[in-house]
Amino acid sequence: MQKLVVVKKMKVLVFFVAIVLAAWHCHGSDHDHDHGHTYQIFPLRMKTGHGGHYIPEVSCQSWRLGVEAHNVIDWKTVPQDCEGYIGNYMLGEQYRSDSKIVNQQAYFYAKTLNITAKTAWVFDIDETTLSNLPYYADHGFGVELYNETSFNKWVDLGEAPALPESLKLYKKLLSLGIKIVFITGRPLDQKAVTATNLKLAGYHTWEKLITKNTSEYHGKTAVTYKSTERKKLEEKGYKIIGNIGDQWSDLLGTNTGDRTFKLPDPMYYIS
Amino acid sequence: MQKLVVVKKMKVLVFFVAIVLAAWHCHGSDHDHDHGHTYQIFPLRMKTGHGGHYIPEVSCQSWRLGVEAHNVIDWKTVPQDCEGYIGNYMLGEQYRSDSKIVNQQAYFYAKTLNITAKTAWVFDIDETTLSNLPYYADHGFGVELYNETSFNKWVDLGEAPALPESLKLYKKLLSLGIKIVFITGRPLDQKAVTATNLKLAGYHTWEKLITKNTSEYHGKTAVTYKSTERKKLEEKGYKIIGNIGDQWSDLLGTNTGDRTFKLPDPMYYIS
Q1: Is B65 close to A134, i.e. CB distance below 8 A?
Q2: For range A108-118, the mean pLDDT
Q3: What is the ipTM of this complex?
Q4: How big is the CA angle at B61 (ends B55 and B64), to the nearest 5 degrees?
Q5: Residue A57: closest CA among chain B residues belongs to which residue?
Q6: How do the domains of chain B map onto residue ranges?
Q7: What is the pLDDT of residues B153-172, one digit of tens each?
Q8: Which CATH topology does A55-262 take?
Q9: What biological function has been recorded for the protein in this entry (chains A, B) (predicted)?
Q10: Which of the ends of chain B has fewer CB neighbours closer than 10 A, N or C?
Q11: Which of B7, B19, B29, B129 to probe the A interface (max A CBs under 10 A)?
């Protein structure tokens, strides 16, 4: 076990050296601001993959961007060729940095607003509040088809860590006096373990923890379920000023909240 | 001029070597799929910027992702620190690849649909159909504040190149029998030069080219202008099955079309 950790640490180190190298080269190649025309060099005319070589780094990054900007939708698994890329992304600096900027923007926005006793912020749970990365690291980072049985076993352990940047946002929103409402696709029979897990991970207070009534929403999409639950909240007098999730289905539909924030998640897609 | 081109080509080459190096290292560090737990290495606990070092590559990439996923909004200019990163991105392989996947997804979607004589697809123009990269390369890739006078001078030249992946989509949609409607924020007095430029760039046919009536939409946002024009289209019997643009303001609002596609653009933001 100890040896494995050392090997993985070394791998992560190699990866960072590569990133730093890339960053350094990039830095060295900053463009001059000459004011002549430079049409000749525009790679608009280049083809992806020089000399026909397939560069997974480039095309998997495009796939990931496509997912985040909601252009690539309804996918079942991460493309096989992107397993290494997505694994490195999830374990590396970039995922944390990408999460950080989203949470920062959310806070910059929240702190400008008037807060009342009924001001609410909606958090999704999986890959938003809690991280299932320990599970997905053992299951191909989304390359393997989703296995409900094995995923539920992981959830029932109740030991998912907090996403650290989301935890920071959560604490800041609480300190602004905003009420936190969790709306998760997890079913009612996982509510207790989820509550315990949230506390273990550092999320100690919330206004509501809404789990999915699987008979009420049987066959309905996450968009419908979450929209309906947000509508119920608003009917109870809450004003949803913000809504954060890792899936577009957390953020689309009706009663979405005044502003939405999309956290990165290239491992799975929920419609 | 010739020398400049060679220097820029070398810079681009250095950049690609760095990318390939990074890709190669990444590839070399693909994760094992051991089935033990590996909590110890989760960089969830790491801080952005090792040892306090600022890595523009990582944080500028996060900023760009934040822009594309509509988390970073209402910004005036590219962060100063990201000029080199954004310049390299726009001139490099990644921008082309990112554009390609969006247009591909759009085509995969379009070809599954029933097409009638009134089936329409909306294209934005700047950074969607035509590229202003030759202009922005001379103006700090978005680091400089937008200068209407100098940008209009560039537009009036009428020599913006096509975005090659968008041009491919355009041709494929035409061949499916879909009507193309351009809706641009460019004003009426640039309609003629825009039409000429479109043809020069390879866009030869369209159903409508809608420019902005600046008195009708004075003080209105792009979201309002574009929503209103799409509504007019639908009132004329068109069915908008797709809508592609580089700004979220092309895609949000009402009458957005059955599905929207967000092309990359980290150089400017239009609300």
Answers
A1: no
A2: 98
A3: 0.82
A4: 140
A5: B23
A6: 55-262
A7: 999 999 999 999 999 999 99
A8: Rossmann fold (3.40.50)
A9: May function as somatic storage protein during early seedling development.
A10: N
A11: B29
